[in-house]
Amino acid sequence: MATDSSLNTELTPERPGPQPAEASVVDASLRTALVALTGSALVWLLVASVLAIIASWKLHTPAFMDACEYVTYGRIQPAQTNAFIFGWGFNAAFAVALWLMARLSRGSLPGSGVLLIGVIFWNAGVTLGIGGILLGFSTSLEGLELPGFATPILLVAYALIAAWSLVVFRSGRSREIYASQWYVFAALFWFPWLYAVAQVMLVFSPVRGTVQSVVHAWFTTNLFLLWFGSIALAAIYYFLPKLLLKPVSNYYLSSLGFWWLAIFGSWAGIARLIGGPVPAWVQTVGAAASFMLLVPLVIFGLNFFGTFSGRWSVLKESLTLRFVAFGVVALMFVLLGWVLNALHGVAAITQFTYVTAAETQLGLYGFFSMVVFGALYYIVPRVLNTAWASAPLAGVHFAASAAGVVLLVGSLLIGGVNQGLALADAGVPFAEVTKATQPYLFSASVALVILAIGQLAFALNFFWTLGRASADCVRSAKTLLSTQPEAAR
Amino acid sequence: MNRAPILFLGVFFALAFSFVGLVLTNQLTYGSFSTHVDEDEGKAFPQALPGLAAQGKLVYQDLGCVTCHTQQVRREGFGSDIGEGSRGWGERQSVARDYLREERVLLGSQRIGPDLRNLAARKNAAGVEITADWLYGYLFDPKLVSVDSNMPRYAFLFKTQKIVGEPSAKALKLPAPYAPAAGHEIVPTARGEALVAYLLSLKDTYAYPETKNVYTPPAPKESAVEEKKEGAK
Lengths: 489, 233
Prior knowledge:
The structure holds two protein chains of two kinds.
Chain A lengths: L19 H10 L1 H30 L12 H33 L7 H23 L15 H21 L7 H26 L6 H34 L9 H15 L11 H13 L1 H15 L5 H4 L1 H23 L2 H7 L3 H31 L6 H34 L5 H53 L1 H5 L1
Chain B lengths: L3 H27 L5 E3 L4 E3 L5 H12 L69 H9 L1 H4 L12 E5 L21 E5 L1 H12 L7 H5 L10 H9 L1
């Protein structure tokens, strides 16, 4: 992106920035790793997009491709979710986390060999898992459908990738620890804990009865809040002050927001079991913890909108900032949605409807993915040391993503509320309920097509830029590998 | 100043708090919950699934039925699952003990289709008891049974075969446009049979002591015997 290429110096608020030369050494050391991570993330994003359109089409046209067992809705929908989460989401999160950590700690990556092996194993594991789901090996646990033969590979690959973020963190020269680093550091530590517990207690050695449901809800919601949420928040805390050229306002509150989210937020997800066959205290605690999310909601609002205030005009110049701003607004709605859905009266209507799907999409797409798109628009040209190949394609990506998310979440939300109200009225036959949601599901499919257009523009732009830089990239990667001890010092 | 160790400890204890509070506490308090032995009936409830139904549960999992169907009946007054003027998806709300013998608990999170927890104890939209034949027809093509159904066909759980000797007792009785060629019949595959056996095993009709303690406003039911009588009406 040409518009903010002048901002190649680090201007985080807490300390004087390093020399530009140092930042470029850090960026160069990350080149191979980030190209591999971003490239695979984008391939998965497109795969997930195709699967999403097929799955969504089946919802309003059930006869679509229904003769084939491998693409029946019950398989293609989980395959889509997992391709999006573990294919796109994790690869992209690794890329952003690694870059943020290296930049903020001012540490270079000492060689990318092991990391690349990790990336290959990760993607092999995800491919194996998605194939497994389509062939009928799904665990049928939402968000954890990847079969048991694929997940240990993921955990090993995770260790090989995540370790390097900690290496750059510890080897870096910066003594201060900035908000973005807390989030990245914590997320890297939390994910394997969540995932290992979920795998052991649900798949390999299942606990009894609905204790499973508690563990499951604890895992899925924390996967969003503590992993995807943390990585995106780290990016927001980094890019807002940097691109707006001013410190994060009310920065002193950010540590309270972090600890509050970690300590109480991790209890909140259990509220989705309201009304379910689990102990009543679990549901009550979940609802209380969800209400406590109002505190980080206010803190993030003060931090982010406070930083934006008076500088809204920069949005016009910076594409990264537009994506991040969209993500910040989505975050506010996501947290508000969690609070509202913990209310008994609301949950009785919205539970088990498309409202939950709208919430997931808003969180994973409107918040996490939008922020990460923005971050990648900033990171990629610096790491490849070249400008984006096409500004119009980037513009198409933003416009399509913003419009697509609004249409998708809006359709699912309104359709879901109608569905919930109709379901609550036993006088409406079930088939009528399904019929009433059809127009909304159709517009959700249209939204997914719009999103796919944006993603295609992004992927084209990335691989085009990569192609242009590749001659340089290959050369400098070779030089880098042969001279890496100097570069690392 | 190097605060990384403090950060690490904080991050550790933050998640440890909810891990101990939610995961471990629940595992310790009701993770070893036991079956309810009914001395009158001489059985322990919930009962294990019969073999074919247990296989059918695996088919249910591999086809991802849980993506659209929940298996939990919410209490009276919360949604319209049960009680007066409700959808009548069960005789009582689901309780933790119902799921005790399930290696994989499939509560589900979407009701794109109706709840299935108590499917076999209910009546279909036309008010008829749910039978294997009805389920076979529904899986083969939902539109045969319910024109507005949004469920995809599961025709791949059936096969067309040549009639050798006597026609199979399980053969689907299909109207003209669906009927197979003369001398042929459409029968469920082994997976189809297992799935239907599982679906027919889905009924939580036994009243545990704890199901009587929950808030159920009018018409308290005394025992499973009475409920059975009602089911037979």
